[in-house]
UniProtKB/TrEMBL annotation:
Compositional bias segments (type: Basic and acidic residues): 1-10
Ranges that cross the membrane: 32-50, 62-81, 93-111, 131-148
Transmembrane helix is among the record's keywords: yes
Domain of life: Bacteria
Region called Disordered, residue ranges: 1-25
Record flagged with keyword Nucleotide-binding: no
Organism annotation: Cellulosimicrobium arenosum
Keyword annotations: Membrane, Transmembrane, Transmembrane helix
Protein name from the UniProt record: Integral membrane protein
C-alpha cells in the first residue's frame, strides 16, 4: 500500500522546503542508502553462503559472524526501504538493525585487531571493514543519522501537557 500526500504525490514529506515533518526512510537520499545496504546485503550473503558451505571448518567464528552480518544487512535494507510515517514497526526494526550493525562492526573490528588468531579468515566487519573500504564502519553512522533526520517531529500543536489530576490521598 503506497502513501500519498494531499496533492497526490507519493510520500508524506514536508510540503515546503524547511517545513518539519516525517519522511519515508526510503525516499530521497534514503534511496541511495537503501541501495548501498542492499549491495552489502547481497555481498555479505553471497560471501557467507560460500564460506559456510565450503570452508566452515577453517574459521567457524569468522564465518558465523559473516552470516550474522548478512542477516543484519538484509533486515536493515528491508526496514529502511519500508520505514516512514505510520510505519512504526519498520522504523523500530531499522533502528535496532543499524544499531546491531554498529555494535557488530565496532566489536568485531576491535576483536580482530586485538586477537587476530580468533579470525584466521576475514569477515565483512574484520578490521572495521577494511576489506570493503571501511564502508561497513561508516554505513551504520550514516544509517543512524538518516533515521534521526527522517523521524517524526514532536507534535507541538497540542500545547503543553496538562497537569495530572491531584492524588486524593495526598490532599488528605
Amino acid at each position: 500500500m503506497s502513501e500519498h500526500a494531499p496533492d497526490g504525490r507519493r510520500g508524506t514529506g514536508p510540503s515546503a522546503p524547511g517545513e518539519p515533518g516525517p519522511r519515508r526512510t526510503g525516499d530521497g537520499f534514503g534511496r541511495v542508502l537503501v541501495a548501498v545496504y542492499g549491495i552489502f546485503a547481497l555481498a555479505a550473503s553471497a560471501r557467507a553462503g560460500v564460506q559456510l558451505v565450503r570452508d566452515w571448518h577453517e574459521a567457524p567464528l569468522a564465518y558465523g559472524l559473516s552470516a550474522l552480518a548478512a542477516v543484519v544487512y538484509v533486515v536493515a535494507t528491508v526496514a529502511l526501504a519500508r520505514g516512514g510515517p505510520g510505519r512504526v514497526v519498520a522504523r523500530r526494526v531499522a533502528w535496532v538493525a543499524v544499531g546491531v550493525e554498529l555494535v557488530g562492526v565496532l566489536a568485531v573490528g576491535a576483536l580482530s585487531l586485538v586477537d587476530p588468531e580468533a579470525f584466521p579468515r576475514a569477515t565483512v566487519w574484520s578490521d572495521f571493514g577494511s576489506g570493503y573500504g571501511y564502508v561497513p564502519l561508516v554505513l551504520p553512522f550514516v544509517g543512524l543519522w538518516w533515521l534521526w533526520r527522517t523521524r517524526a517531529a514532536p507534535d507541538s500543536s497540542l500545547g503543553p501537557a496538562p497537569d495530572p489530576a491531584p492524588d486524593p490521598e495526598e490532599a488528605a
